[in-house]
Design a protein that fits this description.
There is one protein chain. The protein has two domains: 244 residues, Aspartate Aminotransferase, domain 2 (3-Layer(aba) Sandwich); 120 residues, Aspartate Aminotransferase, domain 1, CATH 3.90.1150. Helices cover 41% and strands 15% of the residues. It has 13 helices and 15 strands. The strands form four sheets. It has a seven-stranded mixed sheet, with helices on both faces. α5 runs parallel beside α6. The structure holds pyridoxal-5'-phosphate.
Length: 393
Amino acid sequence: MTKNYKQLNPSTRVLLGPGPSNVHPRVLKAMSTPLVGHLDPDFLEVMNETMELLRCVFQTRNELTIPMSGTGSAGMETLFVNLLEPGDKAVVCINGLFGQRMADIVERCGAELVTVEGEWGRIIEPDQVEEALKKAGGAKIVAIVHAETSTGVRQPLEEISKIAKKYDALFLVDTVTSLGGMEVKVDEWGIDASYSGTQKCLSCPPGLSPVTFSERAREVIKKRKTKVQSWYLDLSMIQNYWGKERFYHHTAPISMNYALREALMLIHEEGLEARFARHERNSKALTAGLEAMGLEMIAQEGYRLPSLHAVKIPEGIDDAKTRKMLLEEFNIEIGGGLGDFKGKAWRIGLMGYSSTKNNVFLVLSALEAVLKAQGYKVEEGAGVKAAQEAYGF
Ligand SMILES: *Cc1c(COP(=O)(O)O)cnc(C)c1O
């Protein structure tokens, strides 16, 4: 007996979770561009333009600004395995799941981990970082998450960057859910190394992880005494492929690089300011709508992300049932809670191509229907009405 495999035909979803976000048709089209070899002169041109466009979104002049092959997590690992050697001390700020992951990687590098712990949903205070640096003595790096996707918190960076400099530590930042959705000023904010991902606010499928390293960080890599324990993520070799030498290291995922270049082109055409304003406007309208429906935002006021909204699940409402109904009845994906917030929070993303007025109205009205079906008391159309007001209709 032979199994009859059906043609691939997944549903068309509205992706309003913590990533991936919806992808612009031009990006999908770019992915179907015929392949060339990874050393083809045409591809070298694509690489050069991609690096140029990446420097624009990172707002940096860092020469070493490239997409690593792999999702955001590969970028996270790239920073730590290249900058840390066994026995080094690393200060890691933890106020959500992604901070925890950085700490896990630091330990796997054989480095000495010093944590700064903050409540989930609140920012890390600069004083806490200074205290940890003082206590640690001679820490090589300070690592923090700019946009904590597990809690919806937007972490201010400038003051902490200054403190890291004062203690002569490199400043590492996770910009996976901020890059392309809000300001990330690598040079102005004194960030020494950062990693992001293609599937969040860059609105490209998952698969590449843009990273950037300052000259100071590159010096540290150059002076390593031990080999980087990961062969695949070793920048000393990878920068010879993306740099002038163009030495083969591994075969670059050609189609994914086409996609990233197109996604970055779309950002370039829209303009960073306009793009950030769009994210801000849609986020404000969504938040107004959710609050008008009696729902509570989790992240500390004044420090909320425009790209991800963590919402407290009201008493008596079933988490899984709500998300299942949104998916099955309305084709909308939102995220559930992670770690400490499992079963307690929903995460509604408005990232990149998914951050639109249409999606704000869609998710507010669908959520109203789904909550009402579970007996939740909400004034009819309250969410949509508040969003309209926020937009000034
Ligand atoms: C999504 C995410 C990651 C991991 O990215 P993957 O693409 O899932 O590997 C890391 N950090 C943050 C803040 C994220 O939101």
